[in-house]
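Hi L., both proteins are below.
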Amino acid sequence: MRCISEDLIWTNIISYLDVDDFKALRLSSKLLGLTDPKFGSHLTLRIDKVPFFCDNDLRNFTEEMIHKWLFKRTKLIINDRHVKLSAIAIDYLVSHGFLDSITNVAVYDSHCHRPAIEHLTRLPNLQSLKLVDQCEEESSETEELESILLNVRNMSSSTLLNLDVDFDSVLSGTRLSFLRGLDKLNHLRLRGFDLSDGLCNLSSLNNLETLLLCHGNFFSSPDDDVNEKDLTDLVGLRKLTTVHLEGFDCLSGIGLAPFCTIGLKSLVMKHCQELSEECFPTLGKMTSLNALHIVNSACDDVNPIPRDKLEHLNTLSELNCLSLFYTLDDPADLQVLLGLSSLETLNLAFEEDLDSEELEVLCTILVQNIPSLKLLRMFSENHDMEYDFEYLGLQVECCQFRFGDLVFV
């Protein structure tokens, strides 16, 4: 060990640690000589905390110092709405290759950092971009967000693989024209757009594997519903394996039909109110599914699934996990699901919580009809409910959630 430099030893150790793990070591950085920025080169760099990103005159910093901070760095984040970043400095750093190793950028309070984003979208090796904003939907701030999207449209499409846009204000779906040309994308998440218009702009994204769409957001629901016929524009996205639809009300088989011709593995429909019973024959054609989640809350308008429509799910022999929230009138309807031979996890929520006797009847039905089932999770918005037990080899848990929660199913 004496033949190996102490720097190299610590570099090898720290490269396996994330920020929380590193803090947990409770090491004295000064005592161990860990103040050199290269020790954290594998971690995300908060550029709003780095002086030379905020100074218009880079002559105050040596190139050696800047290179040390950016050595092998791959991830940048901006997470302070009050800091004023220097567009001049960022332009210089991008133009002169200091940031060529960066592949991942995340910006919070995006409307405060439009000039910085304008230059960061020029990074030659950028693969992942996340834009988050919590503005109050004032016209000036919305205009800033729209300008930012134009910067994304103008960036090189040759490297960008992942794009996550999460706005608390709601922009017109016509602004989604910025996506045209980003044809290398394989992951796209959009939250904060009125999707009653503009879905046609996704039709050319032929390499998408993961698509997450939210009509509006948790704080604001647009006046008009999504026209499900617009979803037929997505029929050419044949590489999709994961689709998440949120706030798509009144869906029928027409809107889901484009996803029947591909090897879709996971489908989530969250807060999709008044789901038509005609969806279920279409769902039954998605025979590659291993996860299907229909997640509603007590606040949603839900049409119960008739038993004869529920039977269409029996063709999903590869289904491993199923969620049905507030979609069943009678737990006994589940006895028709005899064809789910691979199902291991079932997540349920009912309008009225089941008492102990009703729960035992449900468990009996499931054990008899779905022998592969290992875990039953009963979700409830009643936070006084609590239980965890085993019934004839079936693990039964009570899970609590509130409207708007991110439910991990």
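That was the first. Here is the second:
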Amino acid sequence: MTFASGFSKLLMYFTSYKLIYLDDKSIIMASEKRKGRPPGSKSIGIPFKTIMESADLVKMALNEAGDNTMSFKEMSEFMKLPRGAAIPTAGALVEFGLVEKSSLGWKISDLGKIVSKGDPAAYKEALEKNEIFRDLSRRYWNRLVTPGIINGYLKSKYRKGENVFRITERFLEAMEFIKRLQTESGGLGKLSEEEKFQPFTISDWLKIIQLKYALEPPTKSEIENLAEQVANSLDNSSDISFKAISSNIRQYKENKEILAVQVDNIMKIVSAKYPNFAKTTEVKDESETKQ
């Protein structure tokens, strides 16, 4: 049996099974049709490598191969992978969307190239390629919860017996890492010098927008769309003070009077709790202005 035919059979074997990775030394293979699974539950798994480890490996291969397509052996060598870890590691990189397999060989994907530059949004997109991390991200991203809350959710929704503690640990580590990237980059990812240039300050840009709507008031549908976008932004805030306001904005987005009160409440919270931010954006409480 040649190496090529043996490797092809191995790939076919892996495609008929789901890989459930528990740690770097053990791989449990479970058939998708395995009997005995509790009704209403799901089998869960996370990639063999963390998103941070995967990004580092992609950087190593990118430095060596660039945009060129590689053989599996070359990719493994570029990433300095031990022989027994090459296949499951490749599976992790594919699941995160960082590498692509074609008839010619393996290459770093467009997403992988962006991740290698340290872009936080790309890291989050790659993390959410995995089903369980995507589920946890939509439920707990920017939420102040303890690991026990996530462990309990995993145990209740997914099949018991999985390593939920490892899954929770990896999710929280990834979330913390991506948040740190966002802080370091101002939430914009790595920008070129041209992209970093801003023609106006935030406050000046807000004045231009205010003038636009003063001259041409928005339509009813535009107001409702803006209200929904603001509610989404409030949902993403780590400050729980905005959660109730977000709910009210969605509920009363067709009522301009109630919306005005909710926006005023946002201004008051920002002015009281974040005076430096309020000052840079010239956010003022209208009631104080009238006085």
